[in-house]
Amino acid sequence: MITFRHSFDRNFKLPRLNTFLNPYSYLIARKSPELFNKFNIYPDGIALVVFLRLFLLYKCERQSFDMTSLARVVFESAEQQGKSVYLIGTEDRYIIEAVSNISHMYSNLNICGFRNGFFYDQNDRSEALNDIYVMSPDIVVVGMGTPAQEQFLYDLWRIGWRGIGFTCGGFFHQSAKSLDYYPCWMDKLHLRWLYRIFDEPKLFKRYAFQYPRFIWYFTLDCISCYLQNR
């Protein structure tokens, strides 16, 4: 059973790897517990929060790497504390726009480097890992989708980098349009999922078919966890 956290150390006192799971990525994570157990995992999405509270009586809040949640905290804290940040993910055109928007909002944030999240081959991926390791940023944010982003951060950790890492899913793609991606009223009503379908219609299939699968498998996992702990 995946173990979730519900708090974040904004002082970056401990080096750690952080990722975020929603109902869709939970289905992926449960197949690779050996990888995801290396991470501090936060519940992303109101549906997952509701089910955690309902099945496990687990008091938690939604935590996501976007500007309605932890991204704002991370960038503000990094700017105040003079931490260097490296951003990697999405396509060139989107990461460039995202970095421009982030730099505009956080003018004193030290973005020491960035690049797209696609690799020509394994050598290109290895060079990206080595470049980041040599640069040694305090914070690395990776947006490649699950589980590629988790594997990249863990491989970076394995070669000796010891900063703090975050996965961010589609944050860079969204931030290329605007850092305030979600309309305020939809955020307050927890309708972010509905706005994402409106903005990216291809996601309808994910919500329509994968979320019901999540309910089934999450229920089975909770029952299994309960029986093991009896």
Q: What does this protein look like?
A:
With 230 residues, this protein is an alpha/beta fold. The chain has a single domain (17-181), classed as Rossmann fold. It contains 11 helices and 6 strands. The protein has helices at 23-29, 33-36, 46-56, 70-81, 92-105, 122-135, 148-158, 171-175, 184-188, 192-199, 204-228, and strands at 17-21, 40-43, 84-89, 110-115, 139-143, 164-167. Strands 2-1-6-5-3-4 form a 6-stranded parallel β-sheet, sandwiched between helices. Helix 1 packs across helix 11 (204-228). The radius of gyration is 17 Å and the shape is globular. It starts with 16 loop residues before the first strand and ends with a helix. InterPro entries: WecG_TagA_CpsF (IPR004629). Keywords: Glycosyltransferase, Transferase. This is Teichoic acid biosynthesis protein A. It comes from Geotalea uraniireducens.
Which features characterize this protein?
13% strand, 230 residues, alpha/beta, globular, single chain, 6-stranded parallel beta sheet, Rossmann fold
**Uncertain ranges:** none
Give the strand order of the largest sheet, numbering strands 1, 2, ... along the chain.
2-1-6-5-3-4
Can you give the mean pLDDT?
A: 88
Gross morphology: globular
CATH domain class: Alpha Beta
The proportion of residues in beta strands is 5-15%
Rounded to an integer in angstroms, the radius of gyration calculated over CA atoms is 17 Å
Q: According to CATH, what is the topology?
A: Rossmann fold
- For the record, give the distance between the C-alpha atoms at the N and C termini, rounded to a whole number: 15 Å
Secondary-structure element order, N to C: EHHEHHEHEHEHEHHHH
Q: How many beta-strand segments?
A: 6
Can you tell me the CATH architecture?
3-Layer(aba) Sandwich
- Helix/strand structural class: alpha/beta
Major beta-sheet overview: 6 strands, parallel
Binned, the helix content reads 40-55%
